[in-house]
Design goal:
The complex is a heterodimer of chains A (154) and B (427). Chain A is mainly alpha-helical and 154 residues long. Chain B starts with 5 loop residues before the first helix and ends with a helix. Classes of the chains: A mainly alpha (154), B mainly alpha (427). At the A-B interface, helix 2 and helix 3 of A face helix 2 and helix 3 of B.
C-alpha cells in the first residue's frame, strides 16, 4: 500500500473513530445531568463529568488531527488523543483487576472465589476499554512517520 | 580582555560564537510536537485535566484495594481483638490511652494510640501516599511535570505561587500529608506557608471525596458534590490571593528547563517512591502517633471544679474534648445554621474526615445545611495527621498563624453560606 493511500485511509478511520469518542463523551456528560446509564453488550456508558469532558475533548483532538493527518501536527494530535484514552483504559482495567481479586461485599475471606474472579472480566466495560483496540492502528502511523511524512512534503 | 571596551568585548564574543556554535534548522520530532501540545493552553488544559483525573483514579483504586480490601479486615478482625485481649491492666487509664474503648469493634472507633494511632498511618495513609508518590515520580520521569507547571503558572501567579505549586495541590486531593511535605519544592518561606495553609484548609482529601461521592452524590446527585468542591476551590484562590497581599516576603518567578519526553525507568520510579515513602515513615508517623496520643489525652482528661480528673469511658461529654464540643454548640446553630448534632462529626473529622462526612449523612438536615456542614468539615480543621505535619513543617509559631487564618476562613466561608441560605429564604 502506498503511503498516500495509507494516510488517506487513516484519515477516514480516525475521523470515524473520533465521532464515536465524541459521542461517548457527550453521552457520559448527558447522563451526568439527566441520571441513568446505557448498557449494550460489553459497553457501558455511565454518568461522569471530568471523564466525559476529557473523552469528548480527545475526540475533538482526534477529529482535528485526522483532518490533517498528513502533517506532524495532525499526527501528534491523534497520537495524543490515543495516549490519553489508553491511560483511561489502563485505569479502568486496573480497577477491574483489583475488583476481581477481592471478595464480594459481605463475603468472608481475603480473596475472591474463582467464579467471582472470572465473572468480573465478563464486562460490561467503560467506553475507553472498548475503544482501546480500535486506537492501536496509530502504531502503524507512528512507526515510520519521519519517512512517511517526507512524502507529503515533497 | 580587561583592556577591551564593552563594545569590543561584545564583538569578540560574536566572533567566538560564530566559530564554535553551529546553527541548524530545528527538525521537529513527534516527541517535540507532543511536548508543544501539552504546553499550549487549548490542548494542554484538557490533557492536564485527563492526567490529573487519571492520577486520582489510580489513587482511589489502589488505596481502596489495600485499605478496604486488606488493612481494614487485618486491623479490625485480627489485630484489634488480639490487642484488646492481650493488653494487660484493663480497665485502666493506660488501657484507654493505648488501646482505647474496651468494646470497640473497629480500629477507627477504638481511639487508642496502638489501635487508631497505628491504623491511620499504616492502614490508611500509607496506601494513599504510595500511589500518589508513584504517580508524581512517573510524571517527573516522563517529563510532564515541568510542562504542567508551565501550563498552570499564570493562574497560580495570581495568588503569589508558581506553577510547581500544582504538585502539592494535586497530591493533597489524595492525602493532605504528602501535599504539605511536597510544599518544600517552593522556594520561599512565604510560598511554603501560604501553600500549606490553603491546602490544609480548602483541599479535601481523596478519602473524603470518595465518601462524599457515595453519600452526598448518591443521595442528592453529583451537582451537590461538585458545587461543594467548587466552593472550596473558590476559597483556595480567594484566601491565597489575600494571603499573597498581606503576608510579607517574596514570590519569585520560576525558570524551568523543560526536558524532552522520555521513557521512565522502573528503577528510578521505585527509588524515588521508596525515598519519599521512607521519609513519611521516618518523619511523619511519629508525629501522627503523637497526635493520636494528644487527642486521646483530651478525651480521657476532664475538668472538675478547676481540677484535672480522669474521665470514665462513655462519659466523654465530661472530658476536655466534650467541654469544647458543648461550648461550640451555640456557634454551630447560630453562626453557621447547622444542627447541633453536627458537633460529633466535626470532632470525628479531627481524626478522619471521610468518616465524619459519613456520620453527617445520618443526621436529619436540609440539603443546604448539609452543604454547609460538609464545607465546615473540610475547612474547620485539618485532620490530626496533617495537623502534626504542619507543626513539623511550619514550627509552632507558623502553625499558630495558620490556625488563626483557618479560624477566620471557617467563620467567613461558613457564615457566608448561612447568610446566602437566609437571603434565599431556605435557612
Amino acid at each position: 500500500m502506498s503511503v498516500e493511500t495509507k494516510y488517506s485511509l487513516g484519515q477516514y478511520y480516525f475521523g470515524i473513530l473520533s465521532l464515536f469518542i465524541i459521542g461517548f463523551g457527550f453521552l457520559e456528560l448527558l447522563f451526568f445531568f439527566t441520571g441513568g446509564e446505557y448498557c449494550y453488550g460489553i459497553l457501558q456508558i455511565s454518568p461522569a463529568i471530568v471523564r466525559s469532558i476529557v473523552i469528548a475533548s480527545m475526540g475533538i483532538f482526534m477529529l482535528t488531527g485526522a483532518l490533517k493527518l498528513k502533517s506532524l501536527e495532525g499526527l501528534s494530535l491523534v497520537t495524543l488523543a490515543c495516549i490519553i484514552l489508553w491511560i483511561f483504559a489502563a485505569n479502568d482495567l486496573f480497577e477491574i483487576i483489583t475488583t476481581s481479586i477481592l471478595p464480594e461485599e459481605g463475603v468472608e475471606g481475603w480473596f475472591n472465589s474463582m467464579e467471582g474472579f472470572l465473572n468480573t472480566y465478563k464486562g460490561p466495560y467503560n467506553p475507553c476499554v472498548v475503544l482501546l483496540p480500535f486506537t492501536l492502528p496509530i502504531f502503524l502511523f507512528i512507526k515510520n512517520y519521519k519517512k512517511d511524512l517526507r512524502v507529503f512534503k515533497e | 580582555m580587561s583592556e577591551l571596551t564593552p563594545e569590543e568585548r561584545w564583538d569578540y564574543l560574536d566572533k567566538l560564537v560564530e566559530k564554535v556554535v553551529k546553527f541548524e534548522k530545528r527538525k521537529l520530532s513527534l516527541k517535540d510536537a507532543l511536548g508543544d501540545l501539552t504546553i499550549r493552553p487549548i490542548t494542554g488544559i484538557p490533557i492536564a485535566l485527563g492526567i490529573l483525573f487519571s492520577v486520582w483514579m489510580f489513587f482511589s483504586t489502589f488505596a481502596g484495594f489495600f485499605t478496604d480490601g486488606f488493612m481494614v479486615p487485618l486491623f479490625d478482625e485480627h489485630y484489634l481483638p488480639w490487642i484488646q485481649e492481650s493488653f494487660p491492666e484493663k480497665p485502666s487509664w493506660l488501657y484507654t490511652l493505648m488501646v482505647g474503648a474496651p468494646g470497640a469493634d473497629n480500629c477507627f472507633e477504638a481511639f487508642g494510640v496502638l489501635t487508631t494511632g497505628l491504623f491511620v498511618p499504616f492502614g490508611v495513609v500509607l496506601w494513599a501516599i504510595i500511589p500518589l508518590y508513584l504517580s508524581v515520580a512517573l510524571l517527573e520521569d516522563i517529563g510532564y511535570l515541568p510542562r504542567l507547571a508551565v501550563l498552570i503558572d499564570n493562574v497560580l501567579h495570581k495568588i503569589g505561587l508558581h506553577g510547581f505549586a500544582i504538585v502539592p495541590t494535586v497530591l493533597s486531593f489524595g492525602c493532605n500529608i504528602p501535599g504539605c511535605t511536597a510544599a518544600r519544592i517552593l522556594e520561599t518561606k512565604k510560598e511554603r506557608f501560604m501553600m500549606m495553609t490553603i491546602l490544609a484548609i480548602f483541599i479535601p482529601c481523596g478519602a473524603q471525596l470518595g465518601i462524599m461521592e457515595e453519600t452526598i452524590a448518591g443521595e442528592y446527585g453529583n451537582w451537590l458534590m461538585f458545587t461543594i468542591i467548587g466552593y472550596l476551590l473558590l476559597g483556595y484562590f480567594i484566601v491565597g490571593w489575600i494571603l499573597n497581599k498581606i503576608l510579607p516576603g517574596e514570590s519569585p518567578e520560576i525558570l524551568i528547563d523543560i526536558p524532552p519526553y522520555q521513557k521512565p525507568t522502573i528503577k528510578n520510579l521505585i527509588m524515588k517512591t521508596w525515598m519519599r515513602v521512607k521519609c513519611f515513615l521516618v518523619h511523619a508517623v511519629p508525629f501522627v502517633l503523637l497526635g493520636s496520643l494528644l487527642v486521646n489525652i483530651l478525651y480521657i482528661v476532664g475538668i472538675d471544679n478547676g481540677n484535672l480528673t480522669l474521665v470514665e469511658f462513655g462519659e466523654s461529654e465530661k472530658s476536655v474534648m466534650g467541654r469544647i464540643a458543648t461550648a461550640l454548640e451555640p456557634v454551630l446553630s447560630g453562626w453557621f445554621g447547622v444542627p447541633k448534632e453536627t458537633i460529633l462529626p466535626l470532632v470525628t473529622a479531627f481524626l478522619r474526615k471521610d468518616l465524619a462526612v459519613a456520620q453527617l449523612s445520618t443526621i436529619s438536615m436540609s440539603v443546604y445545611q448539609l452543604f454547609t456542614s460538609v464545607v465546615l468539615i473540610s475547612i474547620y480543621f485539618p485532620c490530626v495527621a496533617t495537623f502534626m505535619i504542619l507543626l513539623k513543617e511550619l514550627g509552632f509559631s507558623g502553625l499558630l498563624k495558620s490556625i488563626i487564618i483557618l479560624i477566620i476562613s471557617t467563620f467567613t466561608f461558613g457564615g457566608l453560606l448561612h447568610g446566602l441560605w437566609m437571603l434565599m429564604g431556605v435557612a
